[in-house]
Every structure is written in C-alpha cells, then in structure tokens.
Write a structure and sequence with these properties.
This protein is of the alpha/beta class and about 260 residues long. It has one domain: Undecaprenyl pyrophosphate synthetase (3-Layer(aba) Sandwich). The chain is about 45% helix and about 15% strand. The chain has nine helices and six strands, in the order H-H-E-H-H-E-H-E-H-E-H-H-E-E-H. It has a six-stranded parallel sheet, with helices on both faces. Helix 6 links the parallel strand 3 and strand 4.
Length: about 260
C-alpha cells in the first residue's frame, strides 16, 4: 500500500485512492525524472499565448512535487529550461524566469513543510543575477531538509553536463587511469544521487531531448499524451504503477519462473 502521507492527502472516495492503494512501497523508483512538455500546445488548443501554457504548467509542478514527496520518492528531477531554450523569443524566456522566481517564493513553505530539499542542476552561472539569487536562497533555506531531493534542471543540457564533468576532472587533476564510471558519475551535477529509475515524458513525444543522457542509461521510459499543464497526481501514480509491472534486466536475462512447490 502507498505511504500513509499520500493516502491522507487524497480525499476519501477520490479515484486516485484506488491507484494509490495499488502502489507497492517496496518497488518504488528511487529517482523519477520528468520532461515537462506540451505547454505551448496546451495554450494553442485554447487560442491563448504560449506564456499562458507556462503559467498553467506551474500548477502541474506544484501537484507533482508534493505528490512525489508524499509517495516517498528519494529524488525528483524536472526539466525546466534547456541550454537550447535560449533560442526562444526573449519575451517568452523572460516570462519563464519570472514564473520560476514566483514559484520559488510561493512554494518555499510547501517545500519546507514537506521536508523537501531543493537543488538546481545546470549551468547556473549563466543565468541572470536576480534568478541566481532566488535559486540560491531556496537552496539555502531547504538545505537541512532530509526528505525528497527536488532537482530542477535549468539552463541544462545532457551533453553540456558531460563536458562540464570532464572539465572538472581535468581541474581536479584526476588521472585518466583513475577515472572509471563511478568516479565520472560523481563529477556530474547529480553526483551522489541515484540514477533515474523512471523517465516520464508528457505530450506524447518519443525523444529524450538531451536530458540526463548519462544517468538514464537504464531508466524505464513512460510516455503519456497528456500535455504538461494537465499532468497531475493521477498520471504520476499511473507511471509508477506501470514501472512496477516491468521486468528490469539491466542487459541480463530474466530468471525463468519457478513452478509451484519447486525449490
């Protein structure tokens, strides 16, 4: 059965309770990563400016973060802004950054009350000073929290992360012969965290979009046609249940089923 915190959050009689009751706590993914896609299409379907899709997406972030924490996830990583997104119109980028700052201010108490530790991954030093200040303040305020780690990937690219890790290895004087996969992983933005067990992508697109390229080597992938602004607790639970039904082999061969009474 799902965590008591999650069940206490879902009103009696709500259909999500049936989903939550099916979740096996001993087979939970340690790390869930989400590519939040579809804000623009959501707005276009409603004949609204693209920025309205981004505004609506904040509600999905709020619901998903709290549901993930109550579900007992160790790490949640949301792909918020890629290194390629700077190519978008300046007004749209400015709105995205403003929404990010507003979210951090409005949701800080929720992060604190749910024992969530906030962390940014990406090339943060390339962001505007006011954005960096807001991010640093949220990281500092939640640094002592011991529950779920909430990563937000901002000015992030998977290839850029690998390059940055290689540069860090050179700066730290690590000899090539001393650099194995475990050591290299520790140099990534997510160093010290478990790799994602489950990668979720909204809007039905079948690509990973330069997201956590090293870390998702063995992640299970779950794609939904739901556009990000409409993504809620229900969809997260559906993804986790689908994950729990899969046979994770890591390149090996699954053991044959054992007949009843045979040891």
């Amino acid at each position: 059965m799902a965590s008591e915190e999650l069940l206490a959050w879902i009103p009696p009689g709500h259909p999500d309770r049936e989903l939550a009751l099916q979740v096996a706590p001993d087979r939970m993914p340690a790390h869930v990563a989400i590519i939040m896609d579809g804000n623009g299409r959501w707005a276009a379907q409603r004949h609204l400016p693209r920025v309205e899709g981004h505004r609506a997406g904040i509600d999905a972030v709020r619901d998903t973060v709290e549901a993930s924490a109550r579900l007992g996830l160790g790490v949640l990583t949301l792909y918020a802004f890629s290194v390629e997104n700077w190519k978008r119109p300046k007004a749209e980028v400015s709105t995205l950054m403003s929404l990010l700052k507003r979210y951090l201010r409005s949701e800080l108490n929720t992060l604190l009350s749910n024992n969530i530790r906030f962390q940014v991954i990406g090339r943060v030093d390339e962001l505007a000073p006011d954005v960096r200040d807001e991010l640093a303040a949220a990281e500092a305020r939640t640094a002592a929290n011991t529950g779920m780690c909430f990563n937000i990937a901002l000015n992030y690219g998977g290839r850029a992360e690998i390059v940055d890790a290689a540069r860090r290895a050179i700066r730290e004087g690590i000899r090539p012969d001393d650099l194995d996969e475990a050591r290299f992983a520790s140099l990534l933005y997510t160093g010290g965290q478990a790799d994602p067990d489950l990668l979720i992508r909204t809007s039905g697109e079948m690509r990973v979009s330069n997201f956590l390229l090293w870390q998702i080597a063995y992640a299970e992938i779950w794609v939904t046609d739901t556009l990000w602004p409409d993504f809620r607790r229900q969809h997260l639970l559906e993804a986790v249940l689908a994950y729990q039904k899969r046979d994770r082999r890591y390149g090996g061969i699954a053991a044959p089923p054992v007949a009843a009474g045979v040891k």
